[in-house]
Structures are given as structure tokens and as C-alpha cells.
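Sharing in case it's useful to others searching the archive later.

Someone asked me privately for the predicted structure of Peptidase M10 metallopeptidase domain-containing protein, so I'm posting the question and my answer publicly. Question first, with the sequence:
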Amino acid sequence: MRLRPLGIMKVTALIVLLMLVVAVETDAAEPAILILTPTLADDRVEPSQEAIAFWNDRLAEVGVRLRLADAEIVVESPALRTLETYARQVATRAAGLPAGSYEPAPPAALTELSEDVVILLSRQDIMSFTWPVPRVSPPRHLVVIRAVRGPYRHDPMVSRHVVAHELGHVLGLEHNAESHTLMCGPCQPLTAEPDETGFLPLTEGDRTRLLELYGES
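And my answer, the predicted C-alpha cells:
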């Protein structure tokens, strides 16, 4: 699920795209990723790394130069509680807020981080989402991955698809109407089958969009 700060959405998206295009053209550093986890034994850590590797394979396959950096993993960060509170505020308030100062203000625990993408492996049962952090420069994204409950709690297939889907939003992809693909919205996960990569497939529209955003290598 992709949530956006109202009012600054278009400006933020433009700045992010310009920064990533510059990175592609100059062979600059890959977008840095930080995974914050309550424990190293969390079942979502390895699937998150697999999702990053999946996207690097797909970016190479599509023919763009951009790559995501290997993630740094931080366990029991002092920022966890603050970021959990912020994630709850975003999840419950952002979609219906008017533009401007009513958007949840990002805490210093987030804005002081240097990484381009922060993946929070949340303890909360909230919707997973991607959030372009408002009022920060350079632009960055917070990706919140919900705690998996019930029979799918220890199923890495569920977690790797959720993380890969949210990273697709970070890269600029939107939902599509094809319910058995990675960027589906809505999806039909019980009848969807991964392809030979172990993930749900991208659409031709997704691949075309990546080329439009980042150009051929």
C-alpha cells in the first residue's frame, strides 16, 4: 500500500526522481537501505534481503543502471518506539488529512537517519505501506512492514512479496489491476503463483515505467 503526504506529493515525487536519475547518470552511490528490526531472529529479515536482491535482478533484466544497496540491519534501535508511534499516526491519519501542517510530522529519530530507505519491521498489526517522508531533504522513504499474524506468520513467501511490493512503490511503480502480479492492488494472493524468480511477476507496464523513470543503461 502506498501512502503519500497530501499537498507535497507531486513535489516530493519529482525531487526523488531527479535524485535517482542523477545517481544513474553519474554512477553515484546506490540508494542506501536500513532495516530496523526488533530482533535478528525476526522472520521478515531474510525475506527483506531477498526482496532487495529480487529488485536488483529485475532492474538489471530491464536494462537500467540503478541498483539498491545491500541493507544495513540494526537490531533493537533506540528509535524503534518513536518510529512505531509515527507509523501508527501515518497509517491512521494520513489518508484523510488536508494538505499542509496537519500531516504527521516526521520525528527526529527518522529525519536524522542518513539512509534513503528505512524499512521498519513493525510489531504492530497495521497495514504495510510506503511513505515519502515529508519536509526532509534529501527525500527519503519509510517502508513499514506489518507484523504477520495467524497461519502465515512464519511463511517467508508472504513477507518477501510484501517487502518487494513496497519497494516497488519506492522505485516509482503504482498499483495495477492485474491481481496475480507483484504490484497488484487489489490482489488475490491465495490463487497467485510465483514465477521462476520465486516472486510474483512484473507486468510489461511495470518494466516500461522503470525504463521511463531511469532510462536504459
